[in-house]
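Quick one, probably user error.
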């Protein structure tokens, strides 16, 4: 069964904190655009969020020390 996430769910998971950043990620970082369930309701499947998160590079120890 597919679980759909709304913006508040992405925020609760610590993935994103605001809409402008999310829209930039959709445009420039390959974040899934989601789908509309209604005129003002955009959702993402749990699977597509997990895939996008897994595709992100891991932080190196050098960048963490800075």
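Nope, works fine. Designed sequence:
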């Amino acid at each position: 069964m597919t679980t759909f996430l709304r913006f508040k769910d992405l925020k609760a998971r610590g993935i994103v904190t605001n809409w402008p950043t999310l829209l930039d990620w959709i445009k420039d970082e390959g974040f899934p655009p989601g789908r509309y369930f209604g005129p003002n309701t955009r959702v993402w499947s749990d699977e597509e969020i997990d895939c996008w998160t897994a595709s992100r590079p891991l932080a190196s120890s050098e960048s963490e020390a800075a």
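DSSP finds four helices and three strands in the chain.
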